[in-house]
Every structure is written in C-alpha cells, then in structure tokens.
UniProtKB/TrEMBL annotation:
GO terms for molecular function: aminopeptidase activity. Belongs to the peptidase M24 family. This is Putative methionyl aminopeptidase. Keywords: Aminopeptidase, Hydrolase, Protease. It comes from the Eukaryota. The keyword Hydrolase applies.
Amino acid sequence: MTYHIDGFTAAVAHTHVLRVRVADVIAAVNTAAEVALRLMRPGKNNKDVTDVIQKVAAAYDCKIVEGVLSHQMKQFVIDGNKVALIITSTFPYVIKLNLGR
C-alpha cells in the first residue's frame, strides 16, 4: 500500500512468513537492507548496491526474486530514472549511475 502526502510517497508492505528457513530469509533481508542503506551516499553507484545485496543473499544461501528494481523517488515521481537492480542478469539495459544529488 502506498500513500501520497504532499506529492511524496510512503510505501508500506506486509511480510508473509514461509515455513522454509524463515529465520535465514528474514535475517538476509534485514542485513541486505541495512548494508544497502549505508551505501546510499555520494561516491557510490547503483552497481555497488546491487553487488552487496547479491553477496548478502549468497552468504545466507538465499535466492533473490528476479524483476525487482529500486527507483529513486522524488516529489510526484515514484519510479524515477535512477534505478538499482537487485539481480544484474534481469535487465541488462540499466546504466550505471552515481548516487548523490
């Protein structure tokens, strides 16, 4: 579910717990989110974020769902031009962009 407040969006998701390796999957997602958040700074690029998410998934022996993208969000725009892939093999046409302003 996504809300718009003054043109900015706030996305909310619900977690569905599966019976297979629940603790590993939740820990992998939490670790990947924390590491990706720390990489979101000037001087880094979208490929850096993609690489670290893939390394975290491999460390927890988890598979990433293909077709997942992270877009830069701005006021009135939820799917901006700057994109970070979660799996590099999904969309080879995404270009490398530097993170920052």
